[in-house]
Amino acid sequence: MTEAGGPAGPIGAAHARYAPGTPCWVSLMAHGLTATQEFYGGLFGWEFQPGPQQLGPYVHALLDGREVAGIGKLAPDRHLPVAWTPYFASDDVDSTAETVRLCGGTIGVGPLEAADAGRLAIGSDPSGAVFGVWQAGAHVGTEVTGVPGTPVWYELTTYETASVRKFYATVFGYAEEAAPATDFDHVTLRVDGRPVAGVHGVGAALARDLGPHWTTYFEVADVDAALTLVVGLGGRVLGPAHDSAYGRVAAVVDPEGAHFSLLQDAP
């Protein structure tokens, strides 16, 4: 669970441009924009400023003045799941969207301009997992990673990796690294040799209420302290924090039901 980084900045790793296929942004569409800002501001220390309004009210989350994520407001008549959506970098979003369609995926939004910030599309893979595509303009994407409060990893949970790995490799040009254990259905997706995301097949254990879905992991300094904050701010903890090879991890849900995970890097 490591993300490709850029040159070192004052904090974390700063990003000037993302290579195609690299997760470059993450966005949440929620019903209560103000309450959602209060939750994530309290949890991650984010501040907020207005962003492009093409899809309705939208704000960029800032950490020490640098953009790390986006939060938008769902229209009252849009009965869509509240979920964090990762965006993958593209040099040509129109071409990428067409490849998505040709490979069995769907494009539900766009491609469209987000003012001078860039060009975007939102689609789903053949199993139904939703993701975005971002062609950078003035807005490159997440401006800093590698510090608490920033996205650190992206994991697709699906029925089996065989059903979607070819899709993502074709659309975004990923190289793949399968897990060495034959009984563990996991593939790491790589860009220029660097791990950028994972695909995990869980078969019948996949939660029916979620279906195939992408999960964003946010870095925190102390997972256990963060879990206390989550509950105090009105969210829920889905299970006890546990130690992994990548650090201490816990899955949580915000007050509107958006799933995400917290990761405390291994020392």
From TrEMBL:
<dbReference type="Pfam" id="PF18029">
    <property type="entry name" value="Glyoxalase_6"/>
</dbReference>
<dbReference type="InterPro" id="IPR041581">
    <property type="entry name" value="Glyoxalase_6"/>
</dbReference>
<dbReference type="InterPro" id="IPR052164">
    <property type="entry name" value="Anthracycline_SecMetBiosynth"/>
</dbReference>
<feature type="domain" description="VOC">
    <location>
        <begin position="150"/>
        <end position="265"/>
    </location>
</feature>
<dbReference type="InterPro" id="IPR037523">
    <property type="entry name" value="VOC_core"/>
</dbReference>
<protein>
    <recommendedName>
        <fullName>VOC domain-containing protein</fullName>
    </recommendedName>
</protein>
<dbReference type="InterPro" id="IPR029068">
    <property type="entry name" value="Glyas_Bleomycin-R_OHBP_Dase"/>
</dbReference>
